[in-house]
Design brief:
single chain; five-stranded parallel sheet; Rossmann fold; alpha/beta
């Protein structure tokens, strides 16, 4: 079972992703949250396998760095990354394990989560 926390300021985005992922047999959505303080507290308390992090938020990169420093076993998958080399390379800097571009399908999201959890990204 892959334990996940979803982080996004956009409530409907968080809830929608959580509902989709909760329907996958091998995935357990621990919770979702909309700010960095809550995210860090929840990650520290639950130590998920994967954090899905919406990269459209101004504080996403800083949060990714804090997650990597706080709990290095947690894999971070960046969501809504524009599909270009510069943005993808920027994701690697703060310790992000994988990314899901804006154009990705649900199946691609699931593949990214599973790959990150297995250390294949």
């Amino acid at each position: 079972m892959i334990n996940i926390i979803v982080v996004s300021e956009i409530r409907i985005y968080c809830e929608g992703l959580s509902q989709i992922l909760a329907g996958i047999d091998r995935v357990n959505v621990i919770c979702s949250c909309s700010n960095s303080e809550n995210a860090l507290s929840l990650i520290e308390a639950h130590v998920p396998d994967v954090v899905l992090l919406d990269m459209t938020m101004a504080w996403s990169r800083n949060l990714a760095q804090h997650i990597a420093e706080l709990e290095d076993s947690v894999k971070i998958v960046a969501l809504a990354v524009p599909y270009d080399e510069a943005n993808i390379l920027q994701c690697a800097e703060p310790g992000i394990t994988g990314y899901v571009p804006r154009e990705a399908s649900v199946d691609e999201l699931i593949d990214a989560v599973v790959g990150a959890a297995k250390g294949e990204c």
